[in-house]
Design brief:
The complex is a heterodimer.
Chain A lengths: L17 E2 L2 E5 L2 H18 L2 H15 L5 E3 L1 H7 L3 E6 L9 H15 L3 E6 L3 H13 L2 E7 H6 L1 H9 L3 E5 L6 H14 L4 E3 L10 H9 L1 H14 L5 E5 L4 H7 L9 E9 L10 H4 L1 E5 L1 E6 L24 H8 L4 E6 H15 L5 H15 L6 E6 L7 H7 L5
Parallel strand pairs in A: 4-14, 5-6, 5-8, 6-7, 9-10, 9-14, 10-13
Antiparallel strand pairs in A: 1-2, 2-12, 3-4, 11-12
Helix pairs in contact in A: 2-4, 4-5, 4-9, 5-7, 9-11, 10-11, 14-15
Chain B lengths: L2 H12 L3 E7 L8 H10 L5 E4 L10 H12 L4 H14 L5 E5 L1 H7 L1 H11 L3 E4 L4 H14 L2 E2 L1 E3 L5 H10 L4 E4 L12 H14 L4 E4 L5 H10 L2 E4 L1 H12 L5 H20 L1
Parallel strand pairs in B: 1-2, 1-9, 2-3, 3-4, 4-5, 6-7, 7-8, 8-9
Classes of the chains: A alpha/beta, B alpha/beta.
Bound molecules: pyridoxal-5'-phosphate.
The site of pyridoxal-5'-phosphate (PLP) has 21 residues of chain A, from helix 5, helix 11 and helix 15.
């Protein structure tokens, strides 16, 4: 791996939201003032002890943090190789890491005085996490979700409705997460005076990638301290799945300056990279502009975004957060892929071996960690970000098994 | 002199307002757009705004989104837009053509390569919806050097400070977005248009044209009275959509249908 001693990771992004050539603010003029307003509020509150105390309180008492760093002893034994630890984001309220971010953004929304929040969602976890904080703060909540994903993640759709949110089916384009994001941006342009857009991953126009990263970095800060407390040292490797990349950047960021810690971001290999039917822009894409930022994208020779495929709705996205594009180019993080089949196998094996049912997104990280651990020594430590629990995916798995639940 | 400057100069001399229709290239078929462009000119358009289809047109309302989808389904792309303008120039060397689209197709072609081809094809101006001034500095220089106008949007949400920044960078004309919303939305607020256009005029010599939310002759006339011209998109595209849904294949029918709309608007503007 490259040594990046000269890189000061805390100074990225720059004032205009650029991570090297990536990131930025590629949106129509109408949205610029809303982004300026968001940035101003965030800068003001970021270092405000009262705001931070409120977030810490909510994370402790509402989300249930810190999440445990769990030594998966039996899985380690069965795998053979490095010791496998799970950072248990699945134990958070609502069942995934997504709520770390929505708690933070909802508090920002409250400070803007806007009474309506909108969100895009793929797997529905971000939609549920947004609907949850909206219910708690008494905000009106509209969630945009691709028609395809509404079908795949029907349990989460119903959860959002029970929480009082309106789920708006998106029928344009490929009817998945990217189109839900387009639709959310259209809504935001129209209702910018009374609406706060809670983006669910570390993508979108500046300052979203930075603020989502900072809200999710609680994962890595805890994991770093827990590793030192529980094992007496830093881990040798970190593994996380990458859709937009928020759970991954949340785990990675606090370790970036620790040169001894290797990092692996796992993209969705779908039917296999060679088939072109996947969602792995960092492995098989090129830099371009979508959803307000420059980043690696899956696109054709005319610059049209192409349809992606992954068994997991939360990874089925043709772009990725701009900071990951930069971390790839400078060689600090390795980006790899796991196919649908491998993820399914990992879903089943972790469930049986540890009694922990991972989300299908998360199962990609689990599958790669298994491969990686086998190549490592028993005194080495791998931390896997267990970004979410798999209950939402039970119907998908049952369908694959030919069972009607 | 650039065709856009020339056009506004002669409009000023005649005391007329600019009428700027928008169509998406390749909507609904590749052979429809050229006859439609000529028909627009014959029925009174001053500048043609040619939409370049993109897979993720996040600033468009449903009518124009569907036009992009129809165009993409027959493979229309930025390359076709450039080829089409070249063809248009074979018989029309005076009507300015503005390419309106999103950044990624240009980024993919390469900014330098795009500028070269645009000049060669006879394009006059470019409007890239998702390249606001802060991300457009380099591209803006390249366009200026080549003699292409870079059209920027100013929105009702743009602060006075931003209006100044945009006015300093812009060329051709300023495109004032009349409402907070996507294309085709219907809540035109003339008081706010008046206030903003007046302020923009205090910042620049460039003409100011108003678009988004212009539905008919009356609304075109209302905004043109406050500015230098009106941009009409969804109304024209909607007419094309109706024919496309009926499965119409004859380009001449499309040309005739858009002519009728534009002739009406022209009459309203000139009366
Ligand atoms: C459990 C879980 N993990 C991961 C992801 C992917 O998102 P990100 O890459 O932003 O963490 C999702 C998205 O829906 C998710 O629900």
């Amino acid at each position: 791996m490259n040594s990046n001693k000269s890189v000061d990771y805390s100074q990225v992004p720059d004032a205009r939201g650029h991570f090297g050539p990536y990131g930025g603010r590629f949106v129509s003029e109408t949205l610029i003032s809303a982004l300026d307003e968001l940035e101003a509020i965030y800068r003001k509150l970021k270092d405000d002890p009262e705001f931070q105390a409120q977030i810490d309180y909510d994370l402790a008492h509402y989300v249930g943090r810190p999440s445990p760093l769990y030594f998966a002893e039996r899985w380690t034994r069965e795998t053979g190789g490095a010791q496998l630890y799970l950072k248990r984001e699945d134990l958070n309220h609502t069942g995934a890491h997504k709520i770390n971010n929505t708690i933070g953004q909802a508090l920002l929304a409250k400070h803007t005085g806007k009474k309506r929040v909108i969100a895009e969602t793929g797997a529905g976890q971000h939609g549920v996490a947004t609907a949850t904080v909206a219910a708690r703060l008494g905000l009106e909540c509209h969630v945009f979700m691709g028609e395809e994903d509404i079908h795949r993640q029907s349990l989460n759709v119903y959860r959002m409705k029970l929480l009082g949110a309106t789920v708006i089916p998106v029928t344009s384009g490929s009817k998945t997460l990217k189109d839900a994001m387009n639709e959310a941006m259209r809504d935001w342009v129209t209702n910018v005076d009374n609406t706060f857009y809670i983006i669910g991953t570390c993508a979108g126009p500046h300052p979203y990638p930075e603020l989502v990263r900072n809200f999710q970095s609680v994962i890595g800060r805890e994991a770093r301290q827990q590793s030192l407390d529980q094992t007496g040292k830093l881990p040798d490797a970190l593994v996380a799945c990458v859709g937009g990349g928020s759970n991954a950047i949340g785990l990675f960021h606090p370790f970036l300056a620790d040169d001894s810690v290797a990092m692996y971001g796992v993209e969705a290999g779908g039917f296999g990279l060679e088939t072109g039917k996947h969602a792995a822009p960092l492995n098989d894409g090129i830099p371009g502009i979508l959803h307000g930022n420059r980043t690696y994208l899956m696109e054709d020779e005319n610059g049209q975004i192409i349809e992606t495929h992954s068994i997991s709705a939360g990874l089925d996205y043709p772009g990725v957060g701009p900071e990951h594009s930069w971390l790839k180019d400078i060689g600090r993080v390795n980006y790899v892929t796991i196919n649908d089949d491998e993820a399914m196998a990992a879903f089943r094996s972790l469930t049986k071996v540890e009694g922990i049912m991972p989300a299908l997104e998360t199962s990609h990280a689990v599958a790669y960690a298994e491969k990686l651990a086998r190549e490592m020594d028993p005194d080495q430590i791998v931390i896997v970000n267990l970004s979410g629990r798999g209950d939402k995916d039970i119907l998908t798995v049952a369908e694959i098994d030919g069972i009607t639940v | 002199m650039n065709r856009i400057k020339q056009r506004f100069e002669s409009l000023r001399q005649q005391g007329r307002k600019a009428l700027i229709p928008y169509v998406v290239l390749g909507d609904p078929a590749k052979d429809v757009t050229l006859p439609v462009m000529h028909a627009l000119v014959e029925s009174g358009a001053d500048i043609i705004e040619l939409g370049v289809p993109f897979s993720d047109p996040s600033a468009e309302g449903p009518v124009i989104q569907k036009a992009h989808e129809r165009a993409l389904s027959n493979g229309s792309s930025l390359r076709d837009a450039l080829a089409l303008v070249k063809q248009f120039r074979e018989t029309d060397s005076v009507t300015p053509v503005l390419l309106m689209g999103y950044a990624n197709p240009i980024e993919r072609m390469g900014y330098e390569s795009f500028v070269e081809k645009a000049i060669e094809s006879g394009v006059d101006a470019v409007l890239t919806v998702d390249l606001p001034p802060e991300e457009a500095e380099e591209f803006n220089e390249q366009l200026k050097e080549a003699g292409l106008e870079n059209i920027f949007l100013i929105a009702p949400t743009s602060t006075h400070e931003r209006q100044k920044m945009v006015a300093n960078m812009a060329g051709g004309f300023i495109y004032y977005v009349s409402l907070k919303g996507v294309t085709g939305a219907g809540h035109l607020d003339l008081d706010s248009v008046r206030a903003n256009v007046t302020h923009i005029r205090s910042l620049t010599e460039l003409p100011v044209c108003v678009g988004f939310g212009i539905k008919d002759g009356a609304s075109a006339r209302a905004v043109a009275e406050l500015s230098d011209g009106a941009v009409v998109g969804s109304v024209v595209v909607n007419q094309i959509a109706e024919l496309a849904e009926k499965g119409e294949a004859d380009p001449a029918i499309y040309a005739k249908a858009v002519s009728a709309i534009i002739a009406d608007m022209r009459k309203a503007l000139d009366s």
